[in-house]
Amino acid sequence: MSHSHQVLHPISESKIFDYDYYFGKHMAIVGENLGEYMESIVVTKGIVGGPDVLAPYYAIATIVFKDKSALDGALSKIDKPVADIANFTNTKPIMLIGEVVN
After folding, report:
1. Taking the alpha carbons of 88, 89, 90, 94 in that order, is the dihedral positive or negative?
2. CA 81, 70, 17: angle at the middle one, nearest 5?
3. SS in 3 state form for the chain?
4. How far apart are the C-alpha atoms of 78 and 15, rounded to whole Å?
5. Per-residue b/e over 43-73, b at no fewer than 16 CB within 10 Å?
6. 21: number of Cβ within 10 Å
7. Per-residue model confidence as pLDDT tens digits over 2-27
8. pTM, to two decimals
9. What is the C-alpha separation between 102 and 85, in angstroms, rounded?
């Protein structure tokens, strides 16, 4: 069964998020460190949360792994990507690990 690791970067007052760094450098660091384990990755840039509702997240990255073993391998190499978060945002990301059911 496939597994996923999602990283959600919430929007709130007095928070910053450098999209150029995130897309240009951070995602490359993710790929360099976790790429051998990843099956796919989708990054969504928040635009709106619904009609007349601001987006609740700057971005959400969804990384899919073939199985739990691949996820575990990636998690063993997550230190550099996590340490890099401070280079593009002062938000505390929300992380979700789950089973892909669809």
Report:
1. negative
2. 25
3. CCEEEEEEEECCCCCCECHHHHHHHHHHHHHHHHCCCEEEEEEEECCEEECCEECCEEEEEEEEECCHHHHHHHHCCCHHHHHHHHHCECCCCEEEEEECCC
4. 24
5. eeebeeeeeeeebebbbbbbbbbeeeebbee
6. 14
7. 999 999 999 988 889 999 999 999 99
8. 0.92
9. 29
Shortest CA distance to 97 belongs to which of 78, 12, 89, 84?
78
Any bridge partners for residue 5, and if so which?
63, 97
Q: What is the pLDDT of residues 13-63, one digit of tens each?
A: 888 999 999 999 999 999 999 999 999 999 999 999 999 999 999 999 999
